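Below is one such record:
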Amino acid sequence: MKTCVIGGANVDITATTLKSFVPNDSNPGTVRLSSGGVARNIAHNLALMGNEIVFLTFFAGDTFGWFTADSCRKANIDISLCDTAPLGSRSIFLNINNVDGELIGGVSDMVTADSITPVWLASKLSKIENVDVFVADANLSVDSLAYLIDLVDEPLFIDAVSGAKAPKIKKAMALSKRKHVFTVKCNQMEYECLKDVKGITRLYVSRGNDGLDVIEDGKLTHFPSLPCKVENATGAGDALMAGIVHAGPNASIEEAASMGLKCAKITCECPDTVNKQLKQLYEQIS
């Protein structure tokens, strides 16, 4: 399946404590550097599952940006239409995990995503042909999200990213003329902002250890989470979205939820935000 993914690409700096986190103190632990960004992670996971990926983003104008771009090339993600932001621009996500791998908190510095404007998107999308689905994340501006909602005729999947960025989807839907999105994926916090938004065909609500809710035509269907030993929960939501997208727009909610939850489980059991063993493991579960 040919998929165009649009949104954030950054470096993840992930710190995990060796014991329960103690606030207001220095906590012994491990610190890992890896490529991240919601859209980039989704693109990477989809590529591992054999999809043809065209990625649209701005990479940071620093060493981290080069590092992130190189990781995309190595993952067989087409970045030929991407650009690099001015020298010194940043795109970093710093997160702290407790000893159990669960996120305590994080700071997102994603100024490069502001360069993804409707005008820039128009210049890039005109060069892409035969796309089956589009995926965007809420790192995009309200105007850019509204532009995509109105422009693309293919199914559009949007990831809410965070509680601070989910309101962009609500504003973009109000601003758009079409006012319709095929799929939005969010977590419990983001859902509070999106639960009253009309025009979303399928709304996936990740509830972490409590599983996944899917809302379609006013009906809620719950799917339990899969047992796993969490190494790093960061990236699990991106893998969930990738599994939902990979199942395809014609998949039933049961098929899409099952694939998404399996991908999330595989990712949780890895210390990185993308489990590079997903390709082999996917072949076993598909």
